[in-house]
Each structure stands twice: as C-alpha cells, then as structure tokens.
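Quick one, T. Sequence first:
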Amino acid sequence: MLFTPKKTKFKKFQKGRRFNKITPVSTPLKFGQIGLKILETKRLTSKQLLSLYNNLRKKFKKKGKVCIIPYPHLGISKKPIEVRMGKGKGAISHWVAKAKVGATLCEIITMNIAFAQKVLDRIRTKLPIKTKIIKRLL
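Structure tokens:
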C-alpha cells in the first residue's frame, strides 16, 4: 500500500512555486544515530518513499528501526490522455513530498553503526536524488 493521506483540506492542489531557490534547511537527527541528508530539491513520489522504506526494513529486520521523515501530502493531478482542453482540472494521479536541501530523508535507530553505514551507502545509489550520510555526534 502506498503512502497516501487519509484526509486533506482540499480535493485538488495548486502547483505552487518552484522551490529550488530557497535557502538550505539544516535539520539535525532527531530519532536515530545515522541518517540520509538531502542535497538537492526534488519531488519524491509515494512509490519512491515506500520502496526506500521497504528496502531499509528488509535489510535491518530486527537489528534496527527505520524512520522516513518526508510524507507525501501533495496530490498531483493529471488529465487523461487524448482529452481536449477545458472541462475542469484532472483527477489526482499520484502523491508527492517536497524534498528540500538539508532536510533529513530517513533516520535509523541501531546499535551497529558500521552495518547501517554500509546499507545506507548501497541504498543511496538507488535513490533519484543526491544524498549524504550523516551521523549523530555523541
């Protein structure tokens, strides 16, 4: 099952402004000891976030806990193929989360930091955005 909100304020959303000129947000790790920091702005779909969560959960099993921070709460609408212009806005096709520079993508609570770093390094290459591994200073 994909990440989708149960209830929203509006049925359909406006596109909004481009958000690549916003100053970088610096969010430290809140829950875990190690995590991924976002280095570029992009929209992450609910499919991408769900596959990230499933891959991390599959690797860690009972060795650690996984927290995915961004939640796809923004609905993207699209009109069907070969439909003429007009007659209102299209139906919602998928849900996205806006990923800002410097925000935390995921955090992992584990005792084995070396294993977590190897897993995150492998998963980092499969993501559609540039990320960096960050650790909590103890």
